[in-house]
Amino acid sequence: MNEFAGVSPSTDRIRVLHVDDAPDLGELVAAFLERADDRLTVETAASVEEGLDRLAEETFDCVVSDYEMPERTGIDFLETIRSTRPDLPFILYTGRGSEEVASEAITAGATDYLQKESGTDHYAVLANRIANVVERDRARTSMNEIQHLFAELVDRTDDVLWLFSRDWSELVFITDSYETVYGQSLATLREDSRAFLDAVHPEDRERVERSMEALSNGRAVDVEYRVNEAEGYGRYVWVKGEPITDAEGRVTHVGGSTRDITYRRTREEELARAERQYEAVFEDPNVLVGLLTPDGTVLDVNRTAMEYIDADREAVLGTPFREAPWWGDDDSLREDVQRWVDRAASGEYVPFEAEIVGADGHRTVSGVFRPVTNDDGEVTEIIVSDRDITDRRTRERVLREMYEITADPELSFDEQVRGLLALGRAQLGVGYGTLSRIRGEEYRFEVVDAADDSISEGDIVPLSATNCEIAAATEKTLVLENIERDAPEETDRAGFTEWGISCYLGTPVFVDDGVYGTFCFYDTEPRREPFSEWEVTLVDLMSRWVSSELQRQRANERLQRQNGRLERFASIVSHDLRNPLSVAMGSVELAEQTEDLDHLAPARRSLKRMNGLIDDLLMLARSGDVIDDLSAVELASVVEQSWMNVPTADATLRVETEQTVRADGTRLRQLFENLVRNAVEHGARQASGRSAPGDSVEHGSTSSETASHEAESGGRSVTVTVGDLPDGFYVADDGPGIPPENRDRVFEHGYSTDRDGTGYGLAIVREIADAHGWEIRVTESAEGGARFDITGVDVVG
């Protein structure tokens, strides 16, 4: 095979033979080349032998060949062509890039050399190279041929044909189309042969002058620039120039053609703009995009999609989409993919959702197979686009689990909180989650979910050791991904120095418009990535539920207490007040009937008892209200004021406290008054013989007359001591004490062993303690008397 049909005649159409042993890639290259330049018509051959056969039978303007092919290389192909057709443009287009290959190609006579690249940008480069080499080849004609063309085309071409002397000082020939293209009269140019430079865009003139100099020095030129000042230099021209030499090879003239390529440039710019738009859409970093043939073969894939798999892009191109790595080994899913392709190929818009295999495990995507049609409505391509919705699905699952935990009526509040902490820990990837209560300077772990047993529910630590102190003080969510880096001023806390807490996310819990404590998560390792907005929001949502539930519980407790008080008040009115009232009414009636005033004595005693009951009821009604407004109160001062308000006769007060606590001063004084009255009256009754040590005792008489009567009876004096506890205080006496079997009943409403007592004095004490959130219990004092320990108090300082 040693003859070829040759090249096609000079025409705008460029016929290209592309030889590559990968047929799918050959078809892909042909499609993109024809899209890049509509002048190109690309035929393909799968081997050197097939390429040689095609060249022998048909005419082509340019050959584009791969380098590495079975049996014979692209260089072998080139050398065979050059033996009979030395001027046929030949571009070596290969994925094997090296200086050795490039040098070998150029030595063998390759017109150009281009290395394959990923993406689609280089197809436009290849198309331009093809156009340039073909056009240069077509322009290489002899001066006689040029003159002949001038003569044949001068009256019918739109191109500007021109001929100047070597030094551009003389205009030999130019066509009339010059005036239209350059916007300058021929008379002006004939007057000054270099006047055409005035019609060139100022920014392009230096380049044009260099081209003129090159022509004068014997080098052909191929240049594009802007002309026509009258049109704002809006015209683009393509100039091809050739030096014309004499028999001795000296340049005597320069000639060529100027073509108006404004339309082409406009189209190129539009194409470039469209390609940039396509690129912007195709390479969306948030969307996985693929381009398929109607049968599902992969034509192109964007970088975002490739980031999900461990594979080369070239290995994916040309393969069936159903066999692509994204679908893993799920045969059922692969069948679904093919069905989606077939539906899109029939013109259907096919939405889908699937679980694909990503570099970091399985990911959920949602997208669509979108058919692309031509003017006849035929599907020519399929675009697959989808978004990663794994995080959204995860958030939906977490919110659903959160709802299931909080809505489960079978779970206690602590169990619900523990479930939220476990869910939060799993989402945040941390080792510890806690709901904690802040009381003064103490931090108590109420509910814990942890990876180890380093903390337990009920543990108490100093508030200052924790990062929760910041969240509670600012009443804002605290986010610290790396405490040492982000908050070095907090590294002196024991939480960092002793427990090694290195990251923290916590938010305050509110009850009654005040900070109850914190709901927080932390770990001993710094976060590699910042806490996301979703993670912070999740913790805030959980904390708000905890706050709401605690508030609801607090409201229920208040309601129950109120209902209980109402029931007790109804009982008192119906029983405790009714009896003395009946006695008083009966005594008055007897006195009226008999006119014996001695019958009024029982009435007087009943009225006194009723008066005491009413006083205690009023105090009891106020004592149980939850206290919101606390202030710093000195215990010693309140105790001394309370002592002065109670008839104490010969009793002695010993104050052994210097503490300041946060409390309602008025109700704290009531608490001390009732405890002091109880101690004094208890001791007085013992001294008068009305009760013996170990007998049931009356707690709570508010009758000052009873206290005075008993104290004036000559009984022994009682010493009342008020002292400190680590989290509160105590009130003790050296009286007969309270037997263990009666200690659980002394706070009951109406419980009393004294016929003159109301039985509400110590009930009021307990109500006041509960209203503060304190705890109270009865024990035995060091002297054998009664001791009341009040704990859970917010001690100041």
SSE diagram, text form:
Blueprint (H helix, E strand, L loop, with lengths): L13 E6 L3 H14 L3 E6 L2 H10 L4 E4 L8 H9 L7 E5 L4 H9 L4 E4 L5 H19 L3 H11 L6 E6 L5 E4 L2 H6 L3 H6 L13 H12 L4 E7 L7 E11 L5 E10 L1 H21 L4 E6 L5 E4 L1 H4 L6 H4 L14 H15 L4 E9 L2 E13 L5 E10 L1 H18 L5 H16 L3 E8 L2 E9 L9 E3 L5 H7 L3 E3 L2 H4 L7 H4 L5 E9 L2 E10 L9 H44 L1 H17 L5 H24 L7 E4 H10 L7 E5 L3 E4 L1 H24 L15 H8 L7 E7 L2 E6 L27 H12 L2 E6 L5 E6 L3 E2 L1
Parallel strand pairs: 1-2, 1-3, 3-4, 4-5, 23-25
Antiparallel strand pairs: 6-7, 6-10, 8-9, 9-10, 11-12, 11-15, 13-14, 14-15, 16-17, 16-21, 17-18, 19-20, 20-21, 22-24, 24-29, 25-26, 26-28, 27-28
Helix pairs in contact: 1-5, 2-3, 14-15, 14-19, 15-19, 20-21, 21-25, 22-23, 23-24, 23-25
Compact description:
The protein has 797 residues and is of the alpha+beta class.
Helix percent reads: 40-55%
Spatial order of the strands forming the largest sheet: 18-17-16-21-20-19
Largest β-sheet summary: 6 strands, antiparallel
Would you identify the regions where 5 or more consecutive residues have pLDDT less than 50? 1-10, 690-715
Rough outline: elongated
Structural domain tally: 5
Mean pLDDT level: 84
Q: Quick one: CATH superfamily of the largest domain?
A: Histidine kinase-like ATPase, C-terminal domain
Question: If classified by CATH, what would the architecture of the largest domain be?
Answer: 2-Layer Sandwich
**Radius of gyration over C-alpha positions, nearest whole angstrom:** 51 Å
Protein name: histidine kinase
Domain PAC: 221-273, 350-401
Region (Disordered): 683-719
Catalytic activity: ATP + protein L-histidine = ADP + protein N-phospho-L-histidine
